[in-house]
Amino acid sequence: MQTYKYFLFRITFLKNNYTIIEKCINFVKKKIMNEYKSTKLFDGYSTAFRQWRAEHSHCKFLHGYAMKFKVTFTGRLDELNWVCDFGSFKRNGIKEHMSYMFDHTTIVASDDPKLPEFKTLAMKKLIQLRIIDDVGCEKFAEYVFDYINNIVQKETNNRVRVLKVESFEGGTKNSAIYQPVASAKIFYENNNNKKANHKTKTII
């Protein structure tokens, strides 16, 4: 009897709320159908780093790659039928910051036990030191994602977001992709009051 009443309740609920449910489904379909994707390749960087925890590997030694980053954007088209205005990257500082972080720089993890030695080299003007929480192809992809997504979502009022970032180690067959599971809208709202380069320390 209870099963029958529950079944009857569900039928009545669906019947009474059919219009609302249908509108929600159509809204989601429309939103998905109207989302486009575009990609931008940031390259031409010479970056040195080391993964000091990799005791089993030669990656523990300081080494470098011609790094490049493929950034995938997604969102609704603007009045020019663009997902993302790539020309804005010079105006909003993205292009400059990418060069600042990765072009002829040495990136060191903040917990690297040899960090004082790297700071000494930087003070002697032998390297351009950048200090972030973690290093490596995967972590560089995450860093680029966080930095660019924060700016793009803010400038477009959440019309556009970064979907994923692929980081390439030039001269190798290796790459890494960072694509968060959580929605980018939540990410932006949680990081709206943070500076875009909050994870970066610089020693010149």
Structure report:
- The chain is α/β, with parallel strands linked by helices and 204 residues long.
- It folds into 2 domains: 1-33; 36-203, 6-pyruvoyl tetrahydropterin synthase/QueD (Tetrahydropterin Synthase, Chain A), CATH 3.30.479.
- Helices cover 39% and strands 26% of the residues.
- It has helices at residues 2-16, 18-33, 88-91, 94-102, 115-123, 137-155, 184-191, and strands at 36-49, 63-75, 105-109, 129-132, 160-169, 175-178, 201-203.
- The protein has a 7-stranded mixed beta sheet with strand order 6-5-2-1-3-4-7, sandwiched between helices.
- Helix 5 links the parallel strand 3 (105-109) and strand 4.
- Helix 6 crosses helix 7 (184-191).
- The protein is elongated and about 70 Å long.
- The termini are far apart.
Strand content: 25-35%
What's the domain count? 2
Largest sheet: 7 strands, mixed
Which shape, going by the Cα principal axes?
elongated
The radius of gyration over CA amounts to 23 Å
Number of strands: 7
CATH topology assignment of the largest domain: Tetrahydropterin Synthase, Chain A
Oligomeric state of this protein = single chain
Primary descriptors:
204 residues; alpha/beta; Tetrahydropterin Synthase, Chain A; 2 domains; 7-stranded mixed sheet; 7 helices; 7 strands; elongated
Quick recap:
The chain is α/β, with parallel strands linked by helices and 204 residues long. It has helices at residues 2-16, 18-33, 88-91, 94-102, 115-123, 137-155, 184-191, and strands at 36-49, 63-75, 105-109, 129-132, 160-169, 175-178, 201-203. Helix content is 39%, strand content 26%.
